[in-house]
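stage 2 :: seqdesign
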């Protein structure tokens, strides 16, 4: 059985696995899978709460669309583009949190990194081909999830 809450050691292992798989993806395809820490965090989110992963996907799409609209009005490149995308993601995520927190309070228990991840994915969607980025992010996240879930289900990782 996969636990609803993970230990800090499992969380660190999930992020580390995601980093390794992300690095392999980047070195073999020259594509960033939504940022280096993103697949590990998404895999951990899938292990604990699929609803939160779907929310991240929705916020990522909204952030991407907001960034494309912003690029029509403002010249964005380099560090400015990165800051604008991540700040847009945080703003959209906070808006969603404020709007839905009363109905779904458990959806946002200690989710600090979740405010940044949609921005990291959207940033890569702006910089790289959309389909290739989505496939790379999905594949690396799935690989990380399979290894992490298998370790949890086989009892190789401590759950308490």
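stage 2 :: out
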């Amino acid at each position: 059985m996969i636990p609803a809450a993970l230990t800090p050691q499992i969380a660190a292992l999930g992020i580390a696995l995601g980093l390794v798989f992300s690095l392999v993806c980047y070195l073999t395809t020259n594509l960033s899978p939504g940022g280096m820490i993103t697949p590990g965090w998404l895999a951990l989110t899938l292990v604990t709460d699929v609803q939160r992963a779907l929310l991240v996907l929705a916020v990522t799409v909204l952030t991407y669309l907001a960034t494309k609209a912003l690029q029509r009005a403002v010249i964005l490149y380099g560090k400015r583009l990165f800051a604008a995308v991540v700040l847009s993601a945080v703003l959209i995520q906070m808006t969603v949190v404020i709007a839905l927190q009363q109905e779904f309070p458990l959806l946002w228990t200690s989710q600090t990194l979740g405010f940044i991840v949609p921005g990291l994915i959207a940033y890569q969607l702006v910089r790289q081909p959309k389909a290739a980025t989505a496939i790379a992010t999905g594949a690396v996240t799935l690989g990380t999830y399979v290894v992490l879930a298998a370790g949890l289900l086989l009892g190789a990782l401590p759950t308490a």
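stage 3 :: structure notes
- The chain has one domain: 8-153.
- The radius of gyration is 16 Å.
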